[in-house]
Amino acid sequence: MTIIARFNDNRLGVVQGDVIKDVTSVLDALPACRYPLPSHDIFIAALPELRGAIDAAAAKAQGIPVAGVTFLSPVANPGKLVAAPVNYLKHLEEAQADPAIHYQSQVATIHRAGLFLKATSSLVGSSHGIEVAMPDRRTDHEIELAAIIGKRAKNVSRENALDYVAAYSLGLDITIRGPEERSLRKSLDTYSVLGPWMVTADEIPDPGNLDFSLEINGEVRQRANTRDLILSVGELIELASRFYELQPGDIIYTGTPEGVAPILPGDKLHASIERVGEFNVEVRAA
Predict the structure, then answer these.
(1) Domain membership of residue 21 as a residue range
(2) How far apart are alpha carbons 80 and 159 in whole angstroms?
(3) What does pTM read for this prediction?
């Protein structure tokens, strides 16, 4: 399994068991960039060509204990964070039933609501933690499978959409409840967590059958399987690529199941997705 991470001071590594192998040297093969900089992530774009060099560098590198490293977002420069609202039926039902979630607004199905964007400035790695910026407002957790786009995608079909995925990762879509538009309430600093690493797409041929769960202070809050997605990963990519040109490094947050609930400073979250990974995240006041 190829597991790639960014860690510590922007180092690049391959995770093997309980150690990480530093392969930062392969980044020397990336093209030199001048202003204006590319609007996509140049490492993700070059990943297919770098796989051999990454494996060779990992074979020679000394292992560093994973427990002692700081994990950054596995994608350094995404052009877009695309997110799917109410993409699990039971979450749609709980959102429609709970005024604290829908805030007196009509909750539309994803077919009607479509997708939304989150600010790239909200993206952090799992080691950073979540900073609750408005303690007087309800702030909720949402665990999601994240798909990382590997090459330009425009008007692709759902049947071919997974060919455009470079890797998968574990995401948290944090949100403040209230009357404002989703993109505003979900784009605060640290409100898009990604990590702890990314698993290359060839290791997960079927992203539509993955168990996942989220615990708060040891209590299970969310547990589901991606087979329960209303729109599959392929269908989400098809939809997104109708409206946007997807580029290498763009991240698609695929939606969260039922069980969303408030988080508070001091809470400790444990999130996991089968075959993708797991991480612990601490919540603190901004």
Answers:
(1) 3-68
(2) 23
(3) 0.95
